[in-house]
Structures are given as C-alpha cells and as structure tokens.
Amino acid sequence: xxxxxxxxxxxxxxxxxxxxxxxxxxxxxxxxxxxxxxxxxxxxxxxxxxxxxxxxxxxxxxxxxxxxxxxxxxxxxxxxxxxxxxxxxxxxxxxxxxxxxxxxxxxxxxxxxxxxxxxxxxxxxxxxxxxxxxxxxxxxxxxxxxxxxxxxxxxxxxxxxxxxxxxxxxxxxxxxxxxxxxxxxxxxxxxxxxxxxxxxxxxxxxxxxxxxxxxxxxxx
Length: 220
Hints:
Elements (H helix, E strand, L loop, with lengths): L3 E5 L6 H9 L5 E5 L10 H7 L11 E4 L2 E4 L1 H11 L7 H25 L4 H22 L13 H16 L8 H11 L4 H5 L22
Parallel strand pairs: 1-2
Antiparallel strand pairs: 1-3, 3-4
C-alpha cells in the first residue's frame, strides 16, 4: 500500500515530511487540501474527511501507511527518522537531536507567529532585527560540519532546511554575514532525489503558509 501524506496545498509543516520521503526514494500519495475562497478561507475540503480516516487525533499534516496512522508533524518526522535511519542511534544522540529539533522548529515558528500577527508591519521590524541573532546560533553550530549532527544527515536537517529557506525568502540579505548557512542550504538542495524534485513540477516553493497570513502565501 502506498503511504499517504495529507496536508494543505502549501509547504508549511508538511514539507519536511515530503522532503524526507523524496530523499529516501519512497513513493507516496501527496494528498493536498485547498482552502476555500476569501474572505473566510473555509476548511471544508479537509473537515469533510477529518474524522473518516481512523486517525486517533486527526489533524494536518497526517501520515497513513497501512495500520500506521499518525498526526502531529514532529511525531511523523520522528517515526520516519527511526524507520529510515535518520534519527538517534543511542540515548545520548537522542538527547542532542531532541534539542536541535526544537531549536529548528522554533526558527520556523517565530516566523509563522510574525506572519500571522495582526500587527504584522510592527512585528516584521522586530523580527528582522532579531534575525541575525537567531541565524548566528545555527551558523556557529554548523562551523566545520556537513549537517547538524556532523557528517551524518538526520531528520533535523529536514526541519532546519525548511526553517532557513522560509527565512531566506523573508529577508535574504539577513543571510549575507552567514556563508556557512548558505553553503548548508545549497548542500541540502543537492541531495540525491531532492535535487531533481526541487526543479520538478511536483515541487512548489510557494505558498509557504496559508492564505490568512500577511506574508508567506504569495511571493512579494
């Protein structure tokens, strides 16, 4: 049975899952749900299926593979990491990856919260001023490393790449002092299968977020 990844028709929290499966060469159904028209952007397309899939806590994104039915993006990423040897191999590694996972998710989440803010223009300036400090943390960490965990690619790299790329689209010049981050992103984009995927019609760089945001749905 072909696995199914269900999410909105955008990158968001679903794209790291898609990227991981593409990288591992897993064929899957990329089930995408669309929002209704403005101004309500209703979720009827998703809601009419939400409680019919047999998922214990139905939400988007979800992952279904036979009897495995999961929601919650990080739970899905951890499951796939274990299945495809992209996760921790002992308790010490698990502890370190847990921290990096949360740090990578924070980088994405801070931008999401900014873009959904009702005071977007004010929050945008605040966020832009803080970007350097947030990017420097990762630039320092990646010094002398291929990936977040050294020479071995892990599921956290899929989370971090998305967060970095969203931020790059948001304010590219914030990355100019951080060539290590730029090299890391280019290295990720050259990974087998992903290199071809990113230039194919199966991949959409936009939208990044839902239609309710002040930034992130259509390219400026």
